[in-house]
Amino acid sequence: MAYEIPVTQARAELAELINRVVYGGERVVVTRHGKPLVALVSAADLERLETPAAQAEGEEAPVISSVSSVGGTGTRSSERGSYGLTAEHRRPGVHG
Fold this sequence. Notes:
Layout: E1 3-6, H1 7-12, H2 14-24, E2 28-32, E3 35-40, H3 43-50, H4 52-57, H5 61-70
Parallel strand pairs: 1-2
Antiparallel strand pairs: 2-3
């Protein structure tokens, strides 16, 4: 499970958070108003997530479910499950 921290606190503790991620092997989810905003992962984790073989084998699923479970506290049921994605690509001019 990932460590959750509000964005205001994360700003003040960025160096410590980086150390926790790099040396402690932790994943940190930064929240705003109790909702997941970004996740800090080590460069090794990121490389694994971006590897085509890992994506084909579904290795990213535990990370996505971990981040999604952090957002499960204090959210409405209609919002649950939408936090697995950190970004969505849309073509210019397409709104939806």
